[in-house]
Amino acid sequence: MRRRTSTKNHIEVELFPFLSILACTIGTLILLIIVLTTQALEQQEVTIVAKTENGENRSKSPRYIECRQNGVVLYPSEEFVSQEQLDDPNSALQKLIAQVKANKDKEYLIVALRPNGIDVFERVRNLVEGAGIDIGYEPVDSTWKLTIQEEVPTK
After folding, report:
1. pLDDT tens, position by position, 119-134
2. Which residues, including other chains, have CB under 8 Å from residue 74's CB and lie 6 or more apart?
3. How far is CA 107 from the centre of its chain?
């Protein structure tokens, strides 16, 4: 008697489609990383607008100051006042404080605060609060370009 031999069919698995999908996914992720990194390296710009939490303008008009490590910048003229001149009665900062104090029912100060300008901010805040002027502040990253929206339309 002759034995019958059985033959088993071997199924071959082709991995090429899976590898091509994997390569496309990796390529897409690399492209996404490149785009996000490029956007993160670009200089960002921040605009400060004086509004309440409800998006409405306050009844007072804001005046803007930016505190940096070595002094303050007054907006919109972008006049710089060094740290040594902050207490000088003839400095542009003292003149601005006097103007706002004369109109403190209609005006107040907003300070853009850079991370390295905290010491200058403390000095400016003491001067402003000593004059009885309302003050607000907005932390701003050191790499951001600051623009000030001068006039906010009232509703």
Report:
1. 888 988 888 888 888 8
2. 64, 65, 80, 81, 92, 93, 96
3. 24
Euclidean distance between CA atoms 118 and 97, whole angstroms:
19
Residue 111 near residue 124 (C-beta atoms within 8 A): yes
Read out DSSP for 32-69?
HHHHHHHHHHSPPEEEE----TTSPPPSSEEEEEEE-S
- Asked if 72 and 96 touch (Cβ cutoff 8 Å), the reply is no
Could you report the per-residue pLDDT of 15-60, keeping only the tens digit for each? 778 888 999 999 999 999 998 888 777 666 666 666 556 656 567 7
Strands 71-75 and 79-82: antiparallel
CA dist 67 and 116 (Å) reads 8
User: Whose structure tokens read 């019958």?
Assistant: 4
Q: Of 109, 120, 92, 100, give the one whose Cα is nearest residue 48.
A: 109
Q: Residue 109 corresponds to which amino acid? A: L
The CA distance from 133 to 24, in Å, is 60
3-state secondary structure of 11: coil
Domain ranges of the chain: 12-42, 45-148
